[in-house]
Amino acid sequence: MELGQVPLAFSHLPMFPFFDMAHYVASVMALKEQRGAVDVSVRSPFACWFSAMLCCFGGSVLSSLMLGEPPVAFLAKGMNILLASSVWYLVFYCPEDIFCRCFAFLPLQLLVAGMKEVTRTWKIVAGVAHADSHFEDAWLVMIAVGWARGAGGGLISNFEQLVRGVWKPETNELLKMSYPVKVTLIGAVLFTLQHSQYLPIARHNLMFLYTIFLVVSKVKMMLTRSAVSPFAPIESALGYIFFGLPKTPPKMKSEGATSSNGSSVCDQPSSEQSHDGVKKRQAKKTE
Description:
Elements: H1 6-11, H2 18-33, H3 37-43, H4 45-66, H5 78-93, H6 98-102, H7 106-134, H8 139-155, H9 157-163, H10 179-195, H11 203-224, H12 232-243, H13 271-286
């Protein structure tokens, strides 16, 4: 195979079962790391399963709602549901937590995270094309649906939390976007421009370059244990120029084990809890 044919061959990679399974593993393991998720799995396995399905198929649910299609359409994909449900069961109920311990191995974590980012590209492309079939040349619709398909798990995280009995409106992705949601939005814009032939590049080449950027960024963030967006300096400069925002970029939300799909973002301890912890440590020192 010639070097120039690599992007074309890459664009024809099937996502099922291996890449889809990596997406399910990353999403469900991120869900398990959220505060209270394990307790929910004990109290109500059905609520835990439904929450996991929202993390895995949130993009399909949200994009279907936006286009007036049945949001339960993803349930028709029996093999995908079976695979995702198997991953959910192994993550939460495997004896001695063997499944999660295996994926605690860093090289395996990097492999799963990289494969998950590949599925993000495919979902964005599918979302843009699907929106165009309903609303031809409607840029905003194509961008919105591509964004929803690629980062639906993160965008509906508040609803997913409600399923687990948690209500945290301050974690709304529209109020404070995580890196996966931002990079998915950028991807939706790029693929919409390409689909409308305003970006002079072949689709398979754009898919290849965008996926490389996603994988490299994700692996770098995991290796350096950094949750700061690579776009933070640009965001800070643009925010200062156009909206008068402070130049110092705010801290980004941690992604936990995902990435979510945009996927789900791990709950962070509140400032009051952190303050209480500091008080306790100071009291111990004085004793």
